[in-house]
């Protein structure tokens, strides 16, 4: 665990506070001004999409700052770009965890605790940036489509062609990133002597959650693909 003094002395601690306030203020603005006619979930997911896009960009920038792939140099010292990327996302996950507690979304709270623990370890201890940022990138790539699914549902566009294509995009990205590219990165993290226990627990926890959701998403992908190809419609006509 980390003390308040360690967190306060951590690199980019002020940025964490500023970004936390920015996420919170953005939600309040969207909820009370821009999307007053929508639910609180609608505004929160809009914030989540913005974070996902920023995290993807910062992750990519941090990959560009090293001369190796996300699978190399696991457990090594962070680059400044990696630490900043983790700090920004840490602020978001703290905000969203509090939101989920208030709205009783405890399944998401468990997922966020794993993520917050890993990112906090990376920021405070200044190492494991490669695996943490790599994991963050693999998690966030599919999240814009995930949250857009809920926005489209509330906008009554669930049955539109755009929604079907978005569902296929989400499922494809989730399955490839979480269940194909993710396990090798988690394995390297778990077997790395330099990675902290908190980082290993977080990596394993996120993989476990991904596996639990994987089968449901595979079934959803098959169902949406059949709908797009018109297979279900042809079967009904024959019946």
Describe this protein's structure.
With 239 residues, the chain is mostly helical. It has one domain. Helix content is 80%, strand content 0%. The protein contains ten helices and no strands. The chain has helices spanning 4-9, 13-34, 40-64, 80-102, 106-125, 129-140, 143-154, 161-191, 197-229, 231-238. It starts with a helix and ends with a helix.
Quick structural gist:
Keywords: Membrane, Transmembrane, Transmembrane helix. The chain contains ten helices and no strands.
Q: Return Rg in Å.
A: 19 Å
How many structural domains can be distinguished in the coordinates? Answer: 1
Class based on secondary structure composition and strand pairing:
mainly alpha
Low-confidence stretches: none
The profile of the biggest β sheet is:
none
Question: What is the distance, rounded to the nearest whole angstrom, between the alpha carbons of the first and last residues?
Answer: 61 Å
| Total beta strand runs | 0
Order of helices and strands: HHHHHHHHHH
Q: Figure out the total of helices.
A: 10
Give the amount of beta strand, in percent. Answer: under 5%
Quote the average pLDDT: 86
Name the overall outline.
globular
Task: State the helical fraction.
Answer: over 70%
Membrane topology: Multi-pass membrane protein
Protein name: TLC domain-containing protein
InterPro entries: TLC-dom, TLCD5
Domain TLC: 37-226
């Amino acid at each position: 665990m980390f003390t308040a003094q360690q967190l306060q002395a951590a690199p980019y601690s002020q940025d964490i506070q500023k970004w936390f306030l920015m996420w919170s203020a953005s939600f309040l603005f969207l909820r009370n001004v821009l999307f007053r006619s929508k639910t609180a979930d609608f505004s929160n997911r809009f914030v989540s999409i913005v974070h996902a896009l920023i995290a993807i960009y910062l992750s990519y920038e941090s990959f560009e700052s090293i001369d190796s792939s996300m699978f190399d140099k696991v457990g090594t010292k962070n680059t400044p770009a990696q630490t900043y990327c983790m700090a920004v996302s840490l602020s978001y996950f703290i905000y969203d965890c509090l939101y989920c507690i208030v709205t009783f979304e405890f399944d998401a709270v468990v997922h966020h605790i794993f993520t917050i623990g890993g990112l906090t370890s990376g920021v405070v201890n200044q190492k494991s940036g490669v695996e943490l940022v790599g994991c963050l990138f693999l998690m966030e790539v599919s999240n814009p489509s995930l949250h857009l699914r809920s926005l489209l549902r509330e906008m009554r566009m669930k049955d539109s062609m755009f929604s079907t294509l978005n569902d296929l995009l989400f499922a494809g990205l989730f399955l490839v990133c979480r269940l194909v590219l993710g396990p090798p990165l988690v394995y390297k993290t778990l077997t790395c002597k330099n990675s902290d226990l908190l980082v290993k627990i977080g990596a394993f926890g996120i993989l476990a959650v991904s596996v639990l959701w994987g089968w449901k998403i595979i079934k959803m992908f098959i169902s949406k693909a059949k709908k797009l190809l018109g297979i279900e419609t042809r079967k009904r006509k024959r019946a």
